[in-house]
Amino acid sequence: MSDAHGTRTPVVLDCDTGVDDACAILLAALHPRLDLRAVTCVAGNASLADVVRNTLTVLQTAARPDVPVGVGARAPLLEKPFEARHVHGADGMGDLRMPPSRLSPDPRHAVELLRDVIDAGAEEGNRVTLVPTAPQTNVALLARTYPESFARLGRVLFMGGGARVSNATAAAEFNVFHDPEAAAIVLDACAEHDVPVGMYGLDVFYVPTVTRRDVARLRAVGSPVASLASGLVEFACDRFRSEEATIGDAGAVAMLLRPEAVGTQRLPVRVELAGTWTRGRTIVDLRDWSGDMAHDPHGLAATQVDVALTVDGPALADEWLRTVGGFA
Ligand code: RIB
Ligand code: CA
Description:
Layout: E1 9-15, H1 19-30, E2 34-41, H2 48-61, E3 69-71, H3 85-88, H4 110-123, E4 129-132, H5 137-145, H6 147-150, E5 155-159, H7 174-178, H8 180-192, E6 197-200, H9 202-205, E7 209-211, H10 212-221, H11 224-239, E8 244-246, H12 250-257, E9 262-271, E10 282-284, H13 290-294, E11 304-311, H14 313-325
Parallel strand pairs: 1-2, 1-4, 2-3, 4-5, 5-6, 6-11
Antiparallel strand pairs: 7-8, 9-10, 9-11
Helix pairs in contact: 1-2, 1-11, 1-12, 1-14, 4-5, 5-8, 10-11, 12-14
Bound molecules: alpha-D-ribofuranose and calcium ion (CA).
């Protein structure tokens, strides 16, 4: 979205490019009200090498060779990698057999690229919005390595967690489950540096969907972007034997464009690090009576997060579809 002066919003994505991360990159790269400054890569849905390859393929398809791609962490801070190829395919991005990209990653490590892009945004008076759609290993390393740059972020809006919904386990969402320590470090850093933080979690993640009919519409467009988008959605529909598929991570980017379409509440949020069956759960404190909280031996979580709890799914899905299809 643009600010009051109509300037485009600088955004950076941190991805584990996967099918829905690819959808998110397309939206961020092509929407006129967003200024995609960089995409950084982290292991998650697939190996780091696959994530980097997939990210470069998407940016080449979007004709955005100007967007630098940073290579980041190849494993979580503590956990072993825990891939999701059963969801995203053998190559991590829908097995679309796309030709390899001619693009190369930026020579800087992802953490240094994040530092430089954040500092540049702050110096020009237009602070960057960071949208992690993956395990937050890179973002945690940024917070620990260059805290002064982390503090210059305009906002963090992460896809991850859930107040009432999980997927990776009965308790946790995949991105946070993959690297719980990283998610906890990032929440702490947002509180420490007063960086506003939003959570686009599973409570809304599955709601914005596109259909096989949309796949046909995109295919009829015939552009490289529309063809990639149609292939991603068709893969997701086939994978889940459904007539529709969530735009997933792209919903977090669409939320930047249509904030009025997402109902949020500012709530204390912690990450469970110790529980045998609950490790990686985002503990969203939904209590509404101060008496309970006043007697809580745990005290309130340090970080207040704008948690997305409701969403106008068609509004966000439409923003994505119109952008990738070039529809009016
Ligand atoms: O739980 C959903 C998240 O995990 C999405 O970001 C998806 O791409 C996977 O990384
Ligand atoms: Ca992702």
